[in-house]
Specification:
By secondary structure, the protein is of the alpha/beta class. The protein folds into 2 domains: 218 residues, Rossmann fold; 198 residues, Rossmann fold (3-Layer(aba) Sandwich). The protein is built from 14 helices and 18 strands. Strands 3-4-2-5-6-1-7 form a 7-stranded parallel sheet, with helices on both faces. The chain is globular.
Length: 431
């Protein structure tokens, strides 16, 4: 259940959205604003550029989509604009996030008449190209594919009226910042467009980017005292590497799982863990960076639809994915970066709901625990894993990956390697 306490008293209807947009807001079921929406929308709707910081799952996607669409509906395009000149561009660091933003835009903008375009790597090269050549009002995508089409002159950016950067800190992490600057320099001057930037952290490098290329936007910082979501129940088990799978299986047998995300640090570790889960009767899939894009989208849809209960994932799934009703997040491998811990456990307890975040701290990754606790400003409640909490695993099943067969080790520990991801499921007893 979603808790309405995460909402403010500010009604969406108070902003005076253009009526076609307001129809989409009502049909989406938006009544009152979240804090980030209440803080950023008044300024953005006045045409002021904004840089917003907030926890994941706080409604920032709706905030920048509503501001973008309202601006386009209330500001005429240049009379000389050509069909292949987008009016707004929304840049996201990952394919999954771009697809999710596009889906949300379709819902909110269904009555506006604004044409949406989507560009991301891994699939659909010609179909995406044809869509952009035909002309779009709002272009959503990842930097690499967008630059590819731009350099082929499929479109240009000289008529951009709104620029949105989502997960700006992640853009730096993934090495996209040169691409972002390349695109920003080919748009109209920052003072001649609406600029919206959202980031989990407004670090020095993010604020420098905002100052240099986004008309020095007004900074909105929320939830700075508590880094992790308020209703995430965290706990940590100190455990040896070779005890992690027995402990995880034991925990699963005692849980009521609706949807569980299990994070690993490498692709090989994800495949290996998946083999043990399936070998022990647990419905699971794996999602990682080398899973083909069409399969990734299918896995995520199966997770959303409840056809898969447990999704094993690398950090490709840790940020930007809106997957409601994830009841449990497990850090099978403790992340090596403190911010990744926050983004991982932010997949549960979204929009005011409650959720459980469980971390297995082994000798291989325990060195990152002090940094994580310093970053979140609190100690994670720790327990010792006892023998009666563990089960002896059945042998793993072989995992086929892209035309080959994995060869899971017979040892049930954590292990190094490559990681994956998976899907989500209904409330059910797992194990």
């Amino acid at each position: 259940m979603t808790d309405s306490k995460h909402l403010t008293d500010t009604p969406m209807a108070s902003f005076g959205f253009a009526e076609p947009l307001m129809r989409g807001v009502r049909e989406a079921g938006f009544g009152r604003c979240t804090p980030i929406q209440a803080e950023t929308l008044p300024r953005a709707l006045r045409g002021e550029s904004v840089a917003g910081q907030a926890q994941t799952g706080t409604g920032k996607t709706a905030a920048f989509l509503l501001a973008t669409m309202h601006y386009l509906l209330t500001h005429e395009p240049d009379p000389g604009r050509k069909p292949n000149q987008p009016r707004a561009i929304i840049l996201a660091p990952t394919r999954e996030l771009a697809v999710q933003i596009h889906k949300d835009a379709q819902v909110l903008g269904r009555h506006t008449g604004l044409v949406l375009g989507l560009a991301y790597g891994g699939t659909g090269y010609e179909s995406q190209r044809r869509e952009l050549e035909a002309g779009v009002d709002i272009l959503v995508g990842t930097p690499g594919r967008i630059i590819d089409y731009f350099k082929q002159k499929v479109f240009d950016l000289r008529q951009i009226q709104v620029t949105v950067l989502d997960e700006a800190d992640r853009m730096f992490d993934l090495g996209f910042i040169k691409d972002i600057r390349f695109l920003l320099r080919r748009m109209p001057p920052a003072e001649k467009r609406l600029n919206l930037l959202f980031s989990a952290t407004l670090s020095y490098r993010v604020t420098e980017l905002a100052f240099e290329h986004m008309d020095n936007p007004y900074a909105v910082r929320l939830d700075t005292e508590q880094v992790t979501a308020e209703r995430v129940h965290q706990r940590l088990y100190h455990v040896a590497s070779d005890e992690k799978i027995p402990l995880l299986l034991g925990l699963l047998r005692g849980m009521e799982v609706r949807r569980m995300l299990i994070f690993v640090n490498t692709k090989r570790a994800g495949d290996r863990l998946l083999g043990y889960l399936k070998g022990n009767g647990i419905q699971a899939e794996v999602l990682s960076g080398d899973v083909p894009q069409q399969k990734r989208q299918r896995l995520l849809e199966d997770f959303r639809a409840g056809r898969v209960a447990v999704l094993v994932a690398t950090d490709v799934a840790a940020r930007g994915l809106h997957i409601p009703d994830v009841s449990h997040v497990v850090n099978f491998d403790l992340p090596q970066d403190a911010e990744d811990y926050v983004h991982r456990i932010g997949r549960t307890a979204r929009a005011g709901a409650e959720g459980d975040a469980i971390s297995l701290c082994c000798e291989e990754y325990c060195y990152s625990l002090p940094d994580i606790e310093a970053y979140i400003g609190e100690k994670i409640p720790a327990e010792t894993a006892t023998g009666d909490m563990m089960v002896t695993p059945e042998p793993p099943v072989p995992i086929r990956r892209h035309g080959g067969r994995g060869k899971p080790s017979g040892k049930p520990g954590g292990g190094r390697g490559r990681s994956g991801g998976g899907n989500r499921g209904e409330r059910r007893k797992v194990g």
